[in-house]
Amino acid sequence: MANQLSLNRKAKRKADNAARPARTSVSPVPISSYQEAPAVDGSLFKFVMPAEGIIESAVIVIEELPKDGVEIQALVEQKGGGLSILLNVVKAKEPVGVVVAALLRVGDRITVRLTKPAEIKGIWIGFLWTPSAANVKLMELSNEGV
Fold first, then answer.
1. What is the pTM of this model?
2. Which residues contact residue 16 at a Cβ distance below 8 angstroms, ignoring those fewer than 6 apart?
């Protein structure tokens, strides 16, 4: 009888655990780019989203720029419209950050470009992207050798 109660408790615990949603933490993925100078069309960075996720934040650093600075446009082209962010970069080698918090889907395109031609050099761009839950892969980790 005691064994049966023990088995019933174990079965109930397993059923309770199976009913709970599984949770995991997902680290943002850093994506970065460097370009020595703007392209002929003024673009500094182009990227297509390979999977759905959220761009949390972004930063740009320009090593050499005119004394009066430059204006940069970050443009996200999506099926139903898009998103545009303007940044003023006024000091060389100083990071300019922006909180984006935008959900992007497969095929959405990001273009970062100068709003007007300017002589700049050494363009660093980086952003943090967190994949949506559908893109998260669970892995079994072994603790062998620990």
1. 0.75
2. none
